[in-house]
Amino acid sequence: MCLVYISEVSFRLFFERPKSGELAVLVHIKFSQQSEPEDLREFEELALAAGADPLTLVTGQRDKPDPKLFAGSGKVEELGQLVRDNNVELVIFNHSLSPSQERNLEKVLECRVLDRTGLILDIFAQRARTHEGKLQVELAQLQHMSTRLVRGWTHLERQKGGIGLRGPGETQLETDRRLLRVRIKAISSRLDKVRRTREHGRRARTRNSVPTVSLVGYTNAGKSTLFNAVTEAGVYVKDQLFATLDPTMRRVELDDIGACVLADTVGFISHLPHKLVEAFRATLEEAASADLLLHVVDCADPERDRNIDEVNKVLAEIGAEEQPRLMVYNKIDLHEYSIPRIDRDDQGRPVAVWLSAATGEGVALLPQALTELLAQDLVDDTLVLTADEAALRARFYQQHAVVSEQFLDNGGSEVHLRIPKPDLLRILSHSNYQWSQLRWLGGNANQSAGSD
């Protein structure tokens, strides 16, 4: 019982955070091998989003990281002076630190040290609302913290030998690690069930020919604002990084297409921790299996091109780099030279939509572009039916596929259809009809029969 109690104390040490903002010093070291400069404004916004109260940003330059302290000894002395003079509670590095570097820095600075991965994990822990989201964040946290358990037991390091003093630190660490492994296994198992449930949902939508469109993009690009503008879902929106964490899906009706599922997903960011990508794989698979990706971009962001590249990297990591996509350049109200419009390629297909989800400018263009892209297999032609084919005619009406109908003297009719080809094929299959049996007045018969 004692060991379990101490382990619970250790978990609280890692996962609890103060309710008030912690006075923090931000640290960024530029290395000579870096090809592009980091966006320090984004680093500050991450710290603010986590609830920190940044005192100052300390920068430096090195050829490569120091194996022991990451930064040079002179820079660490400078940080230590800042910490002591201002009673700083937290030092945050805009880099990934090894467990030993994090531990050594805490010894020297005598305050908590957090790296970029831990910072992002902390933000995610604050924002998770659904049961699934909390499980995903906890899994990522446990995987990250499992290598850092030793820092919670530094008070046992002096107990190195002697009668009655052998091994308590090691025993406690092994206990904590075992409990962590058990918890990680349990969470992974539950997330596997979530993944299977989502897969069943995707299969059901595929059987019913309901296309799925996923919103992806850099964090704070305006995905949730756009999602609300299109669906009136009322999801949480705020001008901050990672305002949306839990995925939301809504049904949308599109002209000539019918039902469509629009999914809002978590935003991406540069150097997104691999543990987060793995933990959120069940959610990100919605993007990987979507019929169309809407890549939402803040067109007024000076780092626009870099943000697009970072999103493409994450999409490649989850296997979604080949998915069809439509660029959505949002926030044109903040961009001096942008107007609402649809950009098209040489074949006239929409490739980008320029709009402002906040003001509503150009939002009406998005359903138009979606319809054009998702309706490429749309059958729009007049079908000749005989009087004996009344059951087939009734199925067309049930699917709201009939635009108009003209009755013939022989009891048959000419029915003008507008229906996605997969839906039409499904109706024919249920009615025991072959495509070659249909009699079209236009050119759909030969063209579609060839692709059938």
UniProtKB/TrEMBL annotation:
GTPase that associates with the 50S ribosomal subunit and may have a role during protein synthesis or ribosome biogenesis. It comes from the Bacteria. It is found in: Cytoplasm. Monomer. Associates with the 50S ribosomal subunit. It comes from Halioxenophilus aromaticivorans. This is GTPase HflX. GTP binds at residues 217-224, 242-246, 264-267, 330-333. The keyword Cytoplasm applies. The gene is hflX. Gene3D superfamilies: 6.10.250.2860, GTPase HflX, N-terminal domain (3.40.50.11060), P-loop containing nucleotide triphosphate hydrolases (3.40.50.300). Residues 211-378 form the Hflx-type G domain. The keyword Metal-binding applies.
